[in-house]
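User: Predict structure, ligand pyridoxal-5'-phosphate.
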Amino acid sequence: MPSNEELLAELAALRTTDLPTRGGRTLAHVYDSGLPCLDGLATAAYSAFAPVNGLDTAAFPSVVRLENEVVSFVARLLGGDAATRGSFTGGGTESILLAVRAAREHSRAVRGVTEPELVAPDTAHAAFRKAAHYLGLRLVTVPTDPSSCVPDPADMAAAITERTALVAVSAPSHAHGVLDPVAETANAAAERGVWCHVDACVGGMVLPFLRRLGHELPDFDLSVPGVRSLSVDLHKYGFAHGGASVVLYRDGELRRHQYFSSTDWPGHPVVHPTAQGTRSAGPLAAAWAVLRRLDEEGYTELAATAIGATEEIVAGINGIDGLRVVGAPAATLLCVASEHADPLHVADEMRERGWFLRTQLSFGAHRRNLHLTVTPATAPRVPELLSDLADSVRAAAALPSPDPAPDLAAAVAALDADTVSSEDLASVLDAAGLDRSAGGLPSRTAPLLALLDGAPTALRERLLTELTGSLLTGSGL
Ligand SMILES: Cc1ncc(COP(=O)(O)O)c(C=O)c1O
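Assistant: Predicted complex:
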């Protein structure tokens, strides 16, 4: 039997192959406050509650207290009042799934909707597509303007029908970081008695503090009367460890439709407020500790640092030939178009210089582009980031196109997503550079991503499924 020390050393060694989660050079996936004191606190709180089962509120009353305090903190920030209710969930996707489920049940009970539809701008987070898919709603997407990246409020209103169970808007959107027309959409929904959800997963812990700092922002939260629910992630700009989000409802009557309970089986009586059954209370305790430690003052300071860095980055990017910030970002997420150098190469070049930027594939009028999530930890590194970005753009512009060679492109074009076999997809991925034996993606991902980018959506999705499945083989130990 290996010793504890040996196992922990093995885990530490594994981490060395990962992206750094701290230090401000990873501009996706991680949210770094840049305050080392927070990590120690969150980790200690996490371990203290890791063995507590958050499912059983009677057995573990500590969970009730922590959850109520966390929910009331975010409700106060986001336009809630004494009637507001909420739930602590495992993440943004779960919060969205729950809100969609509650809206679907509510529309059936109150308005008799039997063939429910979910209306959202085409920029809504993929979690809404997943919710529609899992929960049997038809997704109705409203096109967004290619330069502002937001939908016309009149188009949102026109898409709402008697079948609409829920209309969703983002504050801000993930892909472009822009604010959807929340109040106009919520008002149009309210006039038809339809549920409006605000996805503030990424913005809910930044926008209220930007406002406090004097930034002019339209109303986007529960202060808008037609908004019935709102999702906000604490594991993003709440700077909590992963697995921490909140879904808020205007009142308990709306939230009731989220809960699931069953006594129709031979085991113990079941009530599941969220999608999970047994769940560790670790993420809740860690989020609670970080909220208490930072409080509104700490979050305001962090928002000031992050927005200052974002503004500096925007100015720097606009000074780099061929780069352009897309839309008018409302907070700290940026979508950057690269006109001369292929953005997939730019991301690879940045990776070689120690930075991680995400790439987004072509969508509608948008060519593939770069995505940056700016957190306070990046602030001291902005000059270095901009200089490496300028170098990366120059280096990328000198590279040949990452698009597949004509024979590979023709092979991909001949594939039908509905009938193609896993083996055929695997050989296409291998030809584009996937190195299965290395147990991960190649260090330069541009050819693989370019292959995906050139494929129709359904085939892209099959290729991604194949790619991930080929890495997660369940072999080892
Ligand atoms: C706007 C928005 N909504 C939903 C999500 C999904 O959140 P999660 O990844 O926590 O499930 C994200 C994640 O980035 C997001 O930015």
